[in-house]
Amino acid sequence: MLGKTANGLFWMYRYLERAENISRLVETGQRIALTRLGSSDEEWESVLQTAGVAAGFHAAHDSLAKDTAIDWMLRAKENPSSVLTSIMAARQNARLVRTALTHEVWEATNATYMTACTALARKVSERDLPQTLRTVRQQTALVRGATHGTMLRNDIYDFARIGTFLERADNTARILDVKYYVLLPSVMAVGSSIDNVQWETILRSVSARGGFRMEYGDSIDPRDIAQFLILDKRMPRSLAFCIGKLRDNLGYLASNYGTRPQSWALVDHIERGYLSFDIDAVLDYGLHEYIQKVLSLLSELGAQIEIDYRFYE
Amino acid sequence: MARRGTKRDFGMDLSTWSGSNRAMSGTVNETGNFDEMWGRDGALRAPYERFQSWFDGEDPKNLRAKQREAEELFRLTGITFNVYGRAEAEERLIPFDIIPRIISGREWQRLSRGIEQRVRAINAFLHDIYHRQEIIRAGRIPQEMIARNDAFLPQMIGVAPPGGIYTHIVGIDLVRTNDDDFFVLEDNARTPSGVSYMLENRETMLQMFPELFSRNRVQPVQNYPRMLRQSLAACAPSGSGGRPCVAVLTPGIYNSAYFEHAFLADQMGVELVEGHDLRVVDGRVAMRTTRGYKPIDVLYRRVDDDFLDALNFNPDSALGVPGIMDVYRAGGITIANAPGTGIADDKAIYSYMPEIVEFYTGERPILKNVPTWRCSEPEALTYVLDHLDELVVKEVHGSGGYGMLIGPAASKKELAAFRRKLRARPGHYIAQPTLSLSTVPIFTNKGLAPRHVDLRPFVLVSPEGINITPGGLTRVALKKGSLVVNSSQGGGTKDTWVLED
C-alpha cells in the first residue's frame, strides 16, 4: 500500500469520527442549554473548548452567543474542525484513497458529503437542529457500517481503525480534560444540582448515559464516571477501549508486515503504563496531569505512525 | 495543473461540421441528415427494432423518472469532472442520456477492422519517425512536418520502448454521415480519456433497464479494465517477472479527469500514484509504500509529456518523476503511452494519415479521413480561396476551435479577412469540406429528438495484439442543432451498444 494511501485512510476516518463527535457535542450543549434554569452562554464556552475550537472561535468573534457558537461548530468554513469542514475533508481523503475503499464505503461517504452540504447549506434554525444532527450521525454511522460489512481485514482496514480510535481517544481525553474538576471527589459539591448537570454533560457527550446506568444504576459518584470513561474496556469511547483498539490494529500491522516499529512499542507503553491500573492510581497521579500526559502521548503516537508507515516520506 | 500542451482532453467541438442550424423535429428526419435510428427517410433501421418496440410500450413519465434516477446514481458514484478555477462548483456531472446508441454487429466488424489497421499504422509510424524515418526518405511526408513540429520529441530518437509499443491506449474519434460512411475526425494517441464514462454508462443502463438487455444481445464492455491490465502487463520490460507491477500516474485530485484515473486504478486493482509518491531508486522508478520503496514495471501515466520529468522536460513540473526518462531509456520501465506519441495525432499529420496507413500496412485505408487541403500547396490554396464559403479552415497548430473559419456561417467581411490571412501565411492552415453528421435520438420532455453525435472507441495495443472494446463512448450535443459535444458546453454521453448479430 502507498504511504499516501495509508495517510489518506487515517485522516478520512479521523475526520468522520470528528464530525460525529462535534455533532454530539453540539447536541449536548443544546440539551444542557434547554434544560437548565436561567440562561447562560457559559456552557457553550466549555463546549467549544471540549471540541478544541474555542481559540478559532474567539479569533473570529467578539463575543460568545449560543447561535454563533453552534454555527461555528456546525458549518463555519473558517473552522477546520466544524462538522461540515470535517465531512468535506473526510470525503476529499476518500477521493484520494478511492482505490482502497469498497464501492459501498465510497458511496456512503459521498452520500454523507452530499447530505451534509444540503443540510448545512444555511444557518440551521433551533427547530431544525435536532433533525440535522440526527441526519449527520446517521450518515456517518452508515459509513461505519459499510466499513465493517464490506472491507477486507487487511492493512487498509488497520489504518482506517487507527485513525478512528486515535481521534476518538483524543476526543474523550479532551472532554475529560475540560471537565476534570467536576470529577475531582469533593464532599461539598456532591449531589448539588450543578454537578448533576455537569455529569450529564460528560456522559451525553460520549453517548454513555445508557451504558453508565446499566453498570452503575443511579450512582452519581464522580469516581465511577472517571472509571467508566477512562478504564472501562467495555465502553466503546473510553480511553482504555480506544487505546486497546489502537494496540490491536498496530499489532496486526506489525505482524502482517513482519516489523516491530516504534509506534507499536509506544502504544504498548501507553497501555501498560497508563491504562493498567485502577482509578485510585489515576486520581493519585492527578486527574488533570494524567489526562494531559495521555493527550501528549497520543499526539506523539500519531506522529510516530506517520513516520513508521511513510505517510509523507 | 497539467493544462499546457494538453491535447483537448475530453471535450471536443464538432462545429467544423455542417448541419448545425438545420432544425429537426419529432422523430422523423425532415432535413436529409442521416439519423441512426430513422435513416434518411424515416424508416426504422434494423439495429433499433427491438429498442423501438420496447420504447413504444413505456410511459414517458416513468422514463423521465428514470432519467432523474440515472443522475442520482452518477452523483452518488461520484462520476464527475472537475472544472478548473471554480472552487464552489468544482465537480460537475456530465449529462447522461438514457436512449442507447445502437450499432449492428456487421457495422462494427467493418469499423473495428478499420480501427485496427489505423492503430497498427500509427504505431509503425511512431517507431519509424523516432528511428530511420523511412517515410520521409520515401518522400511521403515532408521533412519539415516532423522536424519543425512541437509534438516531435527529440529525446525519443533511437529509444526502443519495451515490446515495441508506443501507443498502448488509443481513442479514435469517429463521425458518421451515412449507412456505411464513417470518418476519422481525429486520433488520440497521447492519453485519451472518457473510458470510465463508457463503463459507467453501461453499468447505469444495466441497473435501470435490465429488461432491455434481455431483449437485445449487447456485446459486453465490462472486460475493459481487465484487458487494460493484461495489455499493460504484456508491455512490461523484459525481466519484470510473472506479475509485473502496474500503476496509474495521475496529476492529482484536482485534475479534471481524476475520477477516471481513480476508477481505472481501482478496477484494475493497481496503485494510483502521484509524482510525489515516486522516486528513482537503484535505477528503477519506485513508489513509496508503507513498507518502503517498491519498483514499478509499467506506468500508465495520465500526465502529459511536458510534465513527466522535470530533469528532462519542463523543469517546473512537480507532477512527474525527475529522472524517469533516464530509467525509461535504459529499459527499466514501460511508460504508457510512450512519450512523444503526440506527433502521430497532430493536426498537421492528420492529413497524411491515408499515406501513413498505406505506407506501413501496404493496404488501402478502411476508414476515411476527412478530405483535407493543405494550404501550403499552391493548388490546394487556389482551391480553398475559390471555395472559402463552403469550407472549414483551421490553424494547423491551433486547438479548441481558435483561429478557425466556418465558411458557410461566416460573413463576407470575415471571409475577406481570412483570405488575407491565408495568402499571408498559407502554411499555417488546412481546409476541410463541411459534412453532414449523423444524429441519434435523445430523450426529451417531448419524446425522442435527434441530436448530433460522435464516437470514441477505445483500443488497447500490446505485443500480444490489438483489442478493441465493442462500442466506445458516444458523445452527444444535447442542444438542438448543435454540433458541440464538449462536456463543458452542453454535451452529454450515451451508452453505446454493439449488437451480437
From TrEMBL, chain A:
InterPro entries in the cross-refs: ATP-dep_Glu-Cys_Ligase-2, DUF403
Protein name: Alpha-E domain-containing protein
Domain DUF403: 1-309
Organism: Aquicoccus porphyridii
Domain of life: Bacteria
PANTHER family in the record: BLR5612 PROTEIN, SLL1039 PROTEIN
